[in-house]
């Protein structure tokens, strides 16, 4: 029976709706019996059947076209279901402040186009989500016992999409924390993002079924485009993160997440259950994840990619049974109770740079790659670092049928780890062999070291070694400044990774032809793997959803912009930018915003969009966005951010640049795609602390010009990482000046280009003109089918761990403005690069002191020279531990000199490797 006071509340709500107009969104307040501020609320609950008042308020808001139902502080007593219709949001005062306490079984049913924020559910309950376009932010479900789970998306023979969970938590329940399920042939779920979410003790004390897990990503439904990032699952009954076998899944990414003490159900070993991470899909990727103390760390299925992950103290670290085509890179098993890596009845498993520390002595060895009962073949396992124990062999340790040979490539140590994240340490160990962190990292960082040793720390065995350290240069900068404006959090919501962490090709120095062959073959394998990883990451790129910014932003649709692809929104946008205060966040909802330009921005803003947000600049004839054109070095503009937008340009061979920035500090560009542009996508002029990341530069070309990113004048601390330069380009990244007679003190300073992918450039992918001082740090990149990978005419160069494939030239340092008879003191460094199928010289150097070390280069068999010094005499020239193949000559100096040192270099022009 409806309580009498609801009638009064409904009359008040109807009067409010009538006064505000039927087309306006509505918000109503509901007070609990113990709310501190009851009198001003429109609905009052008495602590009994409070779902009645809450549902009445929801229905009133829904009848007015949608809006917000605001739950005040306190505890609401619930004895049944609550239904959120389309367009109604449920908002509390905080997960520890507003509580819906379910006395009897019931759920909050979410029908679509809803937002739920800042509240907590307890008891036999959970969220039952049956519609698309739903966001949850700071929501907790605690002590739950509803069979469906705490956050349950259900596709009943329909396609559902667009879900974002941020800072949500499920704890101490008897079913899974997050679950995606469905039924029917048309059932599918796509576009699900979990950020900073956690599940604690799901099923630990009681279970509705034996498969209660933390994150159950798919059951009986097709799943696609799922990102789990910065999440954790601890103490769950089955697995922490779980994707069921047999479901159709596409593009499922788990990254920067941890799984601890899961697999409380210790009943099965093979196939492995109770995993920290259980991958059931060929398109699943684990990136920079951490497992600790689980029944099994990572259970891998056919086609899985796992990069930069670590397990500590689980029964088995990495497990696969009856699977194939598994790619592991930069993974680490520490203190495994049984097997560090167990692969039974599997084939074509590649593990590069796999580190094993503190392995169990029983059984030994620590790696089981098949046995007589469960044979495996085509296992390519490369052990990293110094020998971890006698239990870890240099070859696959288990019996394999002689008809199916098992080969293991030579291991590769991590001399300079290169992965996605960017914590920057102030120092690294004085040896490079096997750095071991003192704690389990929450991310796999990209350290940029302060000093790398010049001595070899590990004796080199005469057989093919498990680990071999390499002398490394000594002048890589201490830090790369990458500040992120306060409007954008330092962890950006990223449904799809924009780049795959690279592995390192350092194995030398080698001392004989056998070692040289092993060194080269391993480098070729890694190089081709990294190329494939980068191409896969490019195909997986998407713009992330940013509900955290939407709620604080100015929506341009309410400020006169149409976004219909027809109306020119230039004037409306310029007016909005002029009138908004400095530091405003501006949201461009999905749509095609015709921006003919020009737009002038003289205050720092955050401009952001989401998937489907396009700036249509096809009719532009001038630079489209000019930032701080009247600025000076004494008064830079600080904190400009652009993210989540596609720029459609007027086509190649056209003049407009999309973004032209002057005197900026802390300028951040991320998740932006530039497509069909002529002169330049981004120009950075006299700017400092600039980060350009996770973006695409697609078909940016103009004859004689054409730059993805152009860096000019006294710009400093420029960090370009995890981007994709594709289709066609001239110089993807270049430095130079637009001025004449620029003082040397105003040349471009520190630039770091790291972990990017470049293809199809008509000149050097990474380029430097005369006005460049540097240091120019180029590391961990992949260049494919470019005329030259790197071509620098100026500046101190530090070029390491790049893969250059199918290019005419590899690394070219011209230093064209240096006096060959009075060389500057700088020493350029070309270290640990892999070059495959290079038509001309792999390394061509002029007018500089140089260290060339640990590189692998393979030509096309057309003669020529692998490493070539132009006609000058260097003061210092050390050429050490390089392996050259399919060239007529390994090294040639046009002006021989006693200052040139050649140590342990090998050439294979035909037959076997010989020293040169």
UniProtKB/TrEMBL annotation:
Residue stretches spanning the membrane: none
Residue stretches making up the Rhamnogalacturonase A/B/Epimerase-like pectate lyase domain: 554-790
Classification via Gene3D superfamilies: Single-stranded right-handed beta-helix, Pectin lyase-like (2.160.20.10)
Name this polypeptide is given: Rhamnogalacturonase A/B/Epimerase-like pectate lyase domain-containing protein
